[in-house]
Each structure stands twice: as structure tokens, then as C-alpha cells.
Amino acid sequence: MVSLSAIQASNANIASALPAGLVAVFVGATSGIGETALKQFARHTRQPRIYFVGRSDEAGKRVADECRSLNKDGQYNFVRADVGLIRSVDDVCRDITAKETAINLLFLTPGTMVSHTETAEKLHLATALVYHSRTRFIVNLLPLLQRATSLRRVVTVFAGGKEGNVDTNDLQAWKVPMLSTRGHVSSMVTVSLETLAKQAPEVSFVHAFPGAVKTNLSRGAKSLSIVVLRAVFKVIGPLIYIPNEEVGERQLFLATSARYPPSAGGAEGVPLAGAVAVARGTDGKAGSGVYSVDQEGETSDAKVELLTKLRKEGVPEKVWNHTEEEFKRITGVEAV
């Protein structure tokens, strides 16, 4: 466990440890975890150039204005898009790749608790946002991440450390029981990051679980279970929610600290200090490039064992074959 004080100390060193002009892409950053992480990145970096993606022009303007108040020397470019659609993801990525030659950070948070809704591209919306859309962003922008000369990192915030068994006959999770869905999709996210890390060992990948955080993921969900959960969290939420600013600080640490280096080394991030050590990856080895971490930034032995089992069963290959098939079906190409 890394203490909050150690996290704050690391973040305070970003401006001196990392170069000016870092380029970052935040997807799903006009509310919740994405917004608070974006603001912390803006606050602590020198002359950042940030692209942030959301659905509301009004929210985009508000966030950009607030970022400018935190750091007037940064550039804050809002991109409006419905990232539940893979074709929209491709449009965003084309726009960014036309303007940038390298990216230092890709930070992903889109999600919803609305289930059993099909997108226009015939994907399960809940799975599309957390898995297909995010993976498409990574695939499309990976060449730019590989070209960065300093920090090179992907952070996807969902349910790191909460992996479970995967139903390879229902990868979109249309019929997976609700209580098993998080583990199913979480494992898909983690094994896909492992696949991508083999293609880009100079980039580090973090799958994070943020803990109890107040978000608007249940917006639009009308199932009885979600209605009950809303009622429960209305009562207990204030007692267990992690403060918004602390959430942002913790996510910024995951995005910038040398605790989570790429397997190939180099571009590690803000140097470690004190008792903070390099984290164990999803294979159980320190510094192996892919990290699935709980709210305290740690990897559990139980999940390392589970992921080892999934690899032996060929789950990563089945997940990736499904991913490429869906991308080709929808867009005709593996990447833009």
C-alpha cells in the first residue's frame, strides 16, 4: 500500500521530474473520475496539451475553463463524441493523430450501468464502453504512445483486481449473471492489456479499481437492482465515498509514477522515493509492464493465480480474436 502522503509527494514532483509539454488524452473526462484525474494532471504538469473527450459541449467548456484556472499555461481541447460507437472512436483518433506525433498518456474511464441495450453497431453498450471502445482507443493511439520520448502510459479505470471467470461463449456479456459481469469484463480488460503490452513493451498499462467513488454511471439505468442500489448508496455513500480530490490524486499517481514502469524499461515516470517500490505486474513479477491494481495500488496474489489459469485456458487469445473480429465487422480495419 502506498500512503496518500507518498502519493501527494510524488505528484508534487511531476513538474520537476517530467518534461514540459506532456500530451495526454482523457476519454470520459467531463464528470466523475475522469474529470478529477484530468484536473489533477492539469494542476501538476508544465504546459500540458490535453485532449479530453465527452458528450456535452456545456460540460466540456466548464471543464476546460476550470483547467485553465488551475494552469493557465496548458492547452485544453474538448472533443465531443459518443464513444459507445467504435466509428466515433475512430473519428476522434483520426483527429488527434492528425495533430500529434506522440502521446504520453491515454486515460480511459467511459462506462455505464445501463445493461441489455444494443448500440447501432450491435454491441452490448455496457461492455462496449468499458471494453470495446477503450480497447479501440488504445489500438488506434498505441503508435503515438510508442513514439513518446518520456512518459508512455495507458490507464484504464474499471475493476482492476476484481477479475473473474470469463464466459468465452458470451464475451459481450448479454447473458452473464449480473453478479458475475464485473469479473467477466474486468478479466477481458486485463488480458487485452497483456496482449497489447506484447506488441508495445515500451508502454506501461494500468488497469485500476478506484474504490468507492461517487459517479454518474447509473444515469439512465432503470432496472430494479439499480434502483435499489441507488437507494442504498444514497444512505451509505457519504460514509464510504473517497473524497473527489483524493481520487484524482491517486489516479494521477497511477498515471505518472515510476512504480508502474513498462516491461522494456525507460520512460518509467516520476522517480520513486522512500519505501515506495516498483509494483508487481499481472504475472506476479515486479515491473513487468501490465498492472491490475486495487484502490491502494496493489496486485493481489489471488488474481495473479486466476490470470495464470485464464492464460492456460487460452482465454486471452479467444478474447483478442473476438475483439479483432468485431473491429473488422464494424469498421473493416483493425485500426485507423
UniProtKB/TrEMBL annotation:
The UniProt record lists the keyword Oxidoreductase: yes
UniProt cross-references to InterPro entries, sorted A to Z: NAD(P)-bd_dom_sf (IPR036291), SDR_fam (IPR002347), Sec_Metab_Biosynth_Oxidored (IPR052228)
Keywords, ordered alphabetically: Oxidoreductase
The organism's place on the tree of life at top rank: Eukaryota
One GO molecular-function entry: oxidoreductase activity
Protein name per UniProt: Short-chain dehydrogenase reductase SDR
SUPFAM superfamilies: NAD(P)-binding Rossmann-fold domains (SSF51735)
Keyword Oxidoreductase: yes
Gene3D superfamilies: NAD(P)-binding Rossmann-like Domain (3.40.50.720)
